[in-house]
Specification:
The protein has 456 residues and is an alpha/beta fold. Helices cover 38% and strands 13% of the residues. It contains 16 helices and 13 strands. The chain has a 10-stranded mixed β-sheet. It has a 3-stranded antiparallel β-sheet with strand order 1-2-3. Helix 4 runs parallel beside helix 5. The N terminus and C terminus are likely disordered. The protein binds iron/sulfur cluster (2 copies). One iron/sulfur cluster binds next to helix 16.
């Protein structure tokens, strides 16, 4: 039997905007159940139901604790250059850095990868391959050295490249795809008039056509995704963006709200309500397209929330939990070898945890710079500490929160949007449509620990 009132599990009823179902949430463990709305009041007090939840709640708490504090770093965002050939309006890297910044030599890239290899061999279980994602600025500005490194360290790392796509010619595409390097590309709109508003060169030339040519060349390649940064400029075109990417057979995209870390991002920030409406419409469109064609375009940032609900340990992205993944699941190396918890902190001196070339890697995880991110938990933040969705949001990005409010222990942008995203995910689950939004095979290695259907 459950404890008497006041001592046992307490479930919060949450209106998810569904005609039939209400969610009951135990926020500290992210446990939830969907119950018929007309029975929600009874269920909250039902001793049999509460007893079954209470019997498992310790297990859920342990699972959540492991996810939040028990993972090892296994990936690195590696910036082989500070330079970029573009001047996107919301970029989090300072313009001077992108125009004239440092550029790693081939020798330094190799030296850095040797350091990283040694670190991961000491820390990761045998057989686990760490990931290195060449990241920006624009990593293809240092293409020859990056490509040489990918071949030389192919036994040691799984590689990825996050690129603006403008420097990917057919030779580069052939190189990357033949080595199964994952490719992330950026595109902000379904046509040049929209996409080029935010993503253009220093001389204001748009790059839409060039990026679409790359997407066409990548048709059929499974390891690529497209990031669309959602701003005031493209908000009204997200559904058309989904149409375009689906037509191009992109396997995955992200519809990421613009980070408000720098002034450029803050200027392009849409309202939460407009963002939520456009985002939900775009997700609905992706569902329709799947119904019509049988082919999915997975919106990865939304899929991650659905996964966080139905299989918490299978989450793939780490921005919507706290502490976030920065400095604990992955970290970033800049073009000087400086170490940061995440690329989002590059350029923010107070968050530099050491330098790879000075042998600081082991110690950087204990530095105050890293600890201010890895110990930043949603429970420290008002009003998030009492939010029912706190483990499906994490109070957005600490870099953004720091720049917006002067403290990492504060809320970042888009609170209402994140709440609506969680509600929409629960509606999708209530309708039994979740598989349509997830990667095929997402449940291959997942064990069901609690079947919600068995108790509602
Ligand atoms: S930012 Fe908003 S949605 Fe996210 S945890 Fe805080 S209160 Fe909840
Ligand atoms: S929340 Fe921000 S700092 Fe954390 S991993 Fe995401 S982008 Fe990086």
């Amino acid at each position: 039997m459950p404890s008497e009132a006041g001592a046992g599990v307490s479930l919060a009823p949450v209106n998810i905007g569904h005609g039939q179902y209400t969610a009951l949430v135990e926020p500290s463990t992210a446990f939830w159940s969907l119950v018929r709305s007309d029975r929600a009041g009874d269920m909250i007090c039902d001793p049999s139901f509460l007893g079954r939840v209470e019997a498992r709640i310790g297990e859920f708490a342990t699972e959540m604790e492991r996810l939040r504090y028990g993972l090892l770093p296994s990936a690195v965002y590696f910036n082989p250059t500070e330079r970029c050939n573009m001047n996107c309006t919301y970029c989090y890297l300072p313009e001077g850095m992108r125009r004239r910044g440092a550029h790693m030599s081939r020798e330094d890239i190799f030296r850095a990868l040797v350091e990283l290899r040694g670190y991961f061999r000491r820390t990761l279980p045998e057989g686990d391959m760490p990931q290195v994602i060449f990241h920006g600025s624009e990593p293809m500005m240092n293409r020859a050295a990056v490509f040489e490194a990918i071949d030389s360290f192919s036994e040691d790392f799984v590689f990825g490249v996050q690129t603006n796509g403008t420097l990917l010619d057919s030779e580069a595409i052939e190189y990357l795809t033949s080595r199964e390097v994952s490719i992330g590309l950026s595109l902000d709109g379904p046509y040049s008039e929209v996409a080029d508003r935010t993503r253009h060169t220093f001389s204001m030339h748009g790059v839409f056509d060039r990026v679409v040519r790359v997407l066409e060349a990548l048709r059929g390649y499974e390891s690529y995704s497209v990031i669309c940064t959602v701003t005031l400029e493209n908000l009204d075109h997200l559904s058309e963006m989904v149409d375009l990417l689906h037509a191009l057979e992109a396997p995955t995209c992200m519809l990421n709200p613009v980070r408000c870390t720098l002034e450029g991002g803050r200027k392009a920030r849409p309202s939460d309500s407009a963002l939520a409406a456009a985002y939900v419409q775009a997700l609905d469109r992706s569902y329709e397209l799947y119904q019509e064609s049988g082919r999915k375009l997975v919106v990865a940032n939304f899929a991650n929330i659905v996964l966080a609900m139905i299989a918490p340990t299978a989450r793939r992205l780490m921005c919507d939990i706290s502490p976030c993944g920065g400095g604990r699941c992955f970290f970033a190396v800049d073009a000087h070898g400086d170490l940061f918890p995440c690329s989002e902190f590059i350029g923010l001196e107070g968050f530099r945890g050491g330098n790879l070339f000075r042998g600081d890697l082991q110690g950087c995880f204990d530095s105050s710079a890293f600890r201010s991110v890895t110990q930043r938990a949603v429970e420290m933040i008002e009003p998030c500490r009492s939010c029912v969705f706190r483990h499906f949001c994490g109070a957005p990005c600490p870099a953004e929160a720091f720049e917006l409010n002067g403290a990492t222990a504060s809320r970042g942008a888009f609170c209402d949007f994140y709440q609506e995203q969680a509600r929409y995910a629960l509606r999708v689950i209530a309708d039994g449509r979740e598989d349509a939004f997830l990667w095929d095979g997402w449940d291959r290695d997942v064990v069901t620990t609690f079947d919600v259907n068995s108790i509602s």
